[in-house]
């Protein structure tokens, strides 16, 4: 990075000198070539690391497990989001959805559709994956003793349904992902829906689901790696490489948005009452269409909640909810063919449902909001990626008696389908 900065300073300095002395043009061109070479070398090293087998095995699973451990302290907030919007949800489709990708994979294999592996190699890979996933999940359930949200038992952490769903989704994508990008989209969409339903059914915390998803993916990656060591090239079908990227591809995307709200300020409801919020959660969808590699337009829909504190020490049992829709400009710069940094500038509308406090009720209200943010994107496959973001939102007051705005940060990650 120091080399890049020095190159930029050098180019600027020599440009000024060359305006006065044309003889310096050749020197400036050499400096410019040097900077381009440094940048290209950095991009190549970054892509080489990102393309390594170890990184490809861990780039999603490890962040999911770490993320699950990090958000454990925020589980109550995400459960409040469920209680606010789906308090009576009770469905059992997730008991079957977890196996759907594996059932489709076996059906296609039995029908003679060519996959990555022969029958023997695939079954060995899947057996390793299932053993690793099952032993890890059951060991953690019996040692951590985390109580389920509904209080039914103390085997909540991690989510076995979610681990199974992401394990079978990864198996299906490994075997048939070469057929179409929609194979992975459908498989991981089904797995994500399984995890969300486990939370909606009040059977798991968010940390259970994130950790379970990470365990499912990691177990499958390791299971296939062990089978590859045993079988080597035997029973392996090679297909067109899906991991070829162009640095200047348009980074259009659609993503699932999950984040933690970090309030930076509060406001006064009236002269006697100061209203503020503690950390909370946000969930929704975000997407953007890029006209070129650098500039695009898009939007975001989120529902969020945060815990309420009145007069700095009185915690309320209710939560501060918000539903927002916004749109605007998105910006991106490719550090390499796989890694991009981005930002955005959004404006939109936020709606606050009726808020009941201990001694008062704030009626429903809406207002104009502004937002911005920065992000780091990794393109894992031709049509899949992961974004880490830090968003800033300027939100209007919930109270009609206040003209103050609230400042809110949202820290999180989103799983992307790149278009």
Structure description:
- With 419 residues, the chain is of the alpha+beta class.
- It folds into three domains: 2-50; 63-231, no CATH class; 253-418, Porin.
- The chain contains eleven helices and eleven strands.
- Strands 1-3-4-5-6-9-10-11 form an eight-stranded antiparallel beta barrel. Strands 7-8 form a two-stranded antiparallel sheet.
- A hairpin with a 5-residue loop joins strand 2 and strand 3 (274-290).
- The longest helix has 26 residues, at 25-50.
- It is globular and about 75 Å long.
- Residues 1-20 have low confidence and may be disordered.
What are the SSEs and their pairings?
Elements: H1 2-20, H2 25-50, H3 53-58, H4 61-70, H5 75-85, H6 94-97, H7 100-110, H8 119-144, H9 160-176, H10 181-200, H11 206-231, E1 253-263, E2 267-268, E3 274-290, E4 295-310, E5 314-334, E6 339-352, E7 355-356, E8 361-362, E9 365-379, E10 384-395, E11 406-418
Antiparallel strand pairs: 1-3, 1-11, 2-3, 3-4, 4-5, 5-6, 6-9, 7-8, 9-10, 10-11
Helix pairs in contact: 1-2, 4-11, 7-9, 8-9, 8-11, 9-10, 9-11, 10-11
């Amino acid at each position: 990075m120091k080399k890049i900065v020095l190159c930029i300073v050098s180019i600027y300095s020599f440009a000024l000198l060359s305006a006065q002395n044309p003889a310096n043009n050749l020197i400036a061109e050499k400096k410019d070539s040097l900077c381009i070479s440094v940048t290209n070398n950095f991009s190549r090293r970054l892509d080489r690391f990102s393309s390594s087998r170890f990184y490809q095995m861990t780039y999603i699973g490890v962040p999911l497990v770490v993320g699950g451990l990090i958000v454990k302290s925020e589980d109550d907030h995400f459960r409040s989001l469920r209680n606010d919007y789906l308090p009576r949800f009770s469905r059992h489709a997730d008991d079957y959805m977890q196996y759907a990708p594996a059932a489709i994979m076996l059906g296609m294999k039995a029908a003679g559709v060519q996959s990555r592996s022969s029958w023997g190699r695939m079954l060995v890979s899947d057996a390793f994956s299932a053993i690793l996933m099952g032993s890890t999940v059951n060991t953690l359930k019996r040692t951590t003793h985390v109580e389920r949200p509904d209080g039914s038992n103390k085997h909540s952490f991690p989510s076995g349904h979610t681990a199974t769903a992401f394990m079978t989704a990864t198996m299906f994508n490994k075997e048939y992902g070469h057929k179409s990008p929609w194979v992975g989209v459908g498989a991981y969409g089904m797995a994500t829906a399984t995890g969300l339903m486990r939370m909606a059914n009040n059977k798991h915390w968010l940390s259970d689901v994130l950790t379970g998803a990470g365990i499912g993916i990691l177990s499958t990656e390791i299971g296939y790696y062990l089978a590859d060591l045993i079988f080597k090239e035997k029973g392996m079908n090679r297909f067109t490489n899906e991991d070829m990227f162009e640095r200047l591809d348009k980074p259009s995307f659609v993503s699932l948005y999950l984040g933690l709200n970090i309030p930076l300020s509060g406001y006064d409801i009236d002269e006697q009452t100061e209203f503020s919020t503690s950390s909370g959660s946000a969930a929704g969808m975000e997407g953007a269409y890029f006209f070129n590699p650098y500039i695009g337009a898009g939007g975001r829909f989120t529902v969020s909640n945060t815990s309420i504190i009145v007069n700095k020490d009185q915690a309320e049992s209710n939560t501060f909810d918000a539903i927002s829709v916004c749109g605007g400009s998105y910006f991106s710069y490719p550090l390499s063919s796989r890694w991009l940094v981005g930002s955005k500038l959004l404006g939109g509308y936020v709606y606050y449902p009726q808020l009941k406090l201990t001694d008062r009720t704030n009626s429903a209200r809406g207002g104009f909001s502004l937002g911005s943010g920065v992000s780091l994107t990794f393109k894992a496959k031709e049509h899949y990626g992961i974004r880490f973001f830090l968003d800033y939102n300027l939100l209007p007051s919930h109270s009609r008696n206040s003209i103050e705005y609230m400042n809110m940060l949202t820290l999180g990650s989103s799983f992307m389908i790149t278009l």
